[in-house]
Amino acid sequence: MDPDSLAAKLTRIQKAPEFSETDTTYINTLYEISFGLGRENRDSARNLAIRTITLSEKINYQKGIARGYYALALTKLLDGNQREAIKLAKISEQKAEILDFSNMVLGARNTKGIAYRELQQVDSAFLNYYRGLKLAESMKSHRHMYAFHVNLGLLFLNNNNYKEALIHYKDAEPSVEKMSSKNFTLSHKLKIAELYLLQNQTDSAFSYLEQARYLIENHTGFAREHSNYWNQMGDLYLLKEKPKLADEAYYKALSITDSLNEPNRVGTYAGLAESAYRQNKNVSSLEFAQKALAIDQGQGLPNTSDELHKLIALLYSKTGQKDSAQLYFEKYQNRYMNLQKSIMSKQIAMLQSKENEKTRLARAEGRAIEEAKSKKVLAWFWLAVCVAGLGLSIFFFRGYRQYKKEVFELDRINQEKDQLFTILGHDLRSPLSTMQELIMLYQEPHKEQDSLYNQLGSLQRRVFFSKEKLNNMMHWAREQVQNAKPNKELIMIEDLIPHCIAAVYEIAAKKNLSISFTSDPRGMLIADPIHLEIILNNLLINAIKFSSENHAIRLKWSESESVKRLSIEDEGVGFSEEQLEQFHEKGKLNSRKGTSGETGLGLGLNICQKLMHLNKGGIQIENTEQGTRVNLIFNN
Questions:
Q1: pTM given for the model
Q2: Which CATH architecture has domain 263-344?
Q3: 471 pLDDT higher than 60
Q4: CA dihedral (491, 493, 494, 495) positive or negative
Q5: So what's the pLDDT on residue 299?
Q6: Which regions span the lipid bilayer (predicted)?
Q7: Of the options 1.25.40, 1.10.40, 2.30.30, 2.60.40, the CATH number for the domain spanning 181-256
């Protein structure tokens, strides 16, 4: 509602028979008018804010007090009195937090963030923006989420951290779309394009500039944004080494901004200076650079000013004016060093602030969890007292059923154990016999080395596969003892896969098998890294076991909107339809010998299936024209 409409509303309230200055509707209207007048008439806005506080305190209207201090903080901020604005915003925030008045808390934090940013206290500014963003996200308030993302982006941009700034502007895009404002949308796309240009990512910048062009062509009243668009097109052409096209774009920007006293003109003249310099038009370049610097003196754009000093120094040097060149180069050096020191100190402060906020949030979350646990324990205690009789009878009945079930399960596990130890004892005799024969061969004089090497190669394969049997036995035994929950963390697939390939490299080399890995896009996954390593080792060993010599094993990572997939494909003997049906129905396969006579326990795929289930995934096996493909599927 505009100030005139609010003033008319105030008049109607005052003329009402039941009118009272201590009526909350009247007080809220005073606040709304103060808030609306802030930029146009600061004195009136300040007086109305003070009036709001005074009347609210008279009737102990806490929401009105919080609003009054917030409106007063805004007037102080507009007056350039940032420290006073911070004090008043803090009072508003504290009262709003007690009242659970979230919108007012967001406004106070945003005001404090702006004031701290203007005071160059970037750590405090970051803290207020970050806390405001988290609250806005919990409320799903897109207007506030947009404001805090943009303010965080500006904070990082002012400190030359273009990558972090771009992240926040990109994160704000969904909120901009929800707000359905063509003006916000256009400005936002141009800012993202600018950040891409600052990082020399021309293709991404061009994509956003094209989206901006479409909005400009289909709507009116965007003169400033239109000028900005051509400015950025000029920067884009310069990055692509097309100075003539850049000149055309910059001149189009100038034709629009001639009537506007905007910082865009600094960027336009600076761009023309750089373009002329690249075309060896030194005189024109110097003229444009000096124009840009003259305008910039009143606008204070630090990065642009530094680059202009550097360019003018180079141009004077080219024309032989060494004294002038030295003067501008010294100015550039001094400004650059001071700027870098300032940026470094601000970035360190922001990092410290971020870590402090994470610690504070973690402690607060810990306290909340403990309180919730205490309440939950107390609730369950009283519930248990109320239903003690029924609970005991159900407990004994279920206990008996569980006892019978566990007896049956223990009997099954014992049978499996006896069978597995029998198989394992039989299979371990083979490598041990080979070791015995090898020792005897070493003891025999004049034994040929080729024979010894052949025996060693055979022994290595047998020992490797025997070790894997023992590993699977250990995993099987651990699963029977306890159903451990997975310890999930962020896994970089590109780091894990080479480690797993290295573990089986030597045994694959014995069959002259190649193992390759491709990823599209860069793979990341939340899972238990130990579980995933066990799964991959089992599947790679199976692929080696059932592959003939001189073939290939391929691992591939892929993603879609719903799932992430890691495929292990070999050129081996494959599975029969009956075996695939057995796996998909029962989750396990009977043991088979490999192409070189390797043996197993038949536990590997069963363990893999269980571990994938614990990590919210599944295994899919299919035959291909060349062999077998095993897909590890994770929900996205």
A1: 0.49
A2: Alpha Horseshoe (1.25)
A3: yes
A4: positive
A5: 47
A6: 377-397
A7: 1.25.40
